[in-house]
Amino acid sequence: QKSKAFKEIGEYAFGFITSTVILHGSSAGSEELNCVYVPSNHLYIGDMFLISSNDIVRPNLSVREGIEVVNSGGMSVPRMLTTLDECVN
User: Collapsing DSSP states into helix, strand and coil, what is residue 54?
Assistant: First the structure.
């Protein structure tokens, strides 16, 4: 059965870049990946993801503001977010 439900797949999550690693032996040779910690309901519990820099959106938030967003369950997210890329240009 063909369905158009869930045609677009994707999501965003607030996380913290903790370090970078080099992945050897990938199809493209070596690739630099970011270790991104995405907390769950408590700041010290969460998941670690290896994500390419091209797939990361860097909001113009301080670490403190990011922690406030996570601790508040998203209630302290600014109504308008800008990315660091927009601030540099």
Answer: helix
The answer to which of 14-18, 25-29, 50-54, 75-79 has the lowest mean pLDDT is 25-29
b/e burial code for range 13-34 (CB count within 10 A of at least 16 → b) = eebeeeeeeeeeeeeeeeeebb
Q: How many domains does the chain have?
A: 1
- Contact at 8 Å (CB) between 69 and 76? yes
Q: Classify 3 as helix, strand or coil.
A: coil
Mean pLDDT calculated for residue range 37-52 = 87
Query: 44 in a domain, yes or no?
Result: yes
Residue 61 domain-assigned (yes or no): yes
